[in-house]
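Encode chain A's predicted structure.
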Amino acid sequence: MVAGLDDLYASRNMLEAEAAFDSLYSWMRRCRLAPMKSAALTLKRHKDNILAYFKERLTNAICEGINSLVQAAKRKARGYHTFEGYATMIYLVAGKLQLAAPVPF
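Encoded structure for chain A:
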């Protein structure tokens, strides 16, 4: 049975993950599509880093999420011409500040 990428990330431990990776890599290398063969070589080059997830269970998802917020702040701060304006927009977007609006009546 050929393991797919979903099977790889559904693995519960390093041994299962390595077996799934090897199966997926083998299938991709035998595939007749050149882009699949190229992708297989890329996966093989990064095998240690991919399998490290199953040892540490860490990803950079939080950093990517923060980066997304900072990029959104950058787009919103286009009219500001100073770093202080940009930094203020980052705090407003990413800071999850609870700003109380005054009650008009």
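The chain has two domains: 5-56, 61-94.
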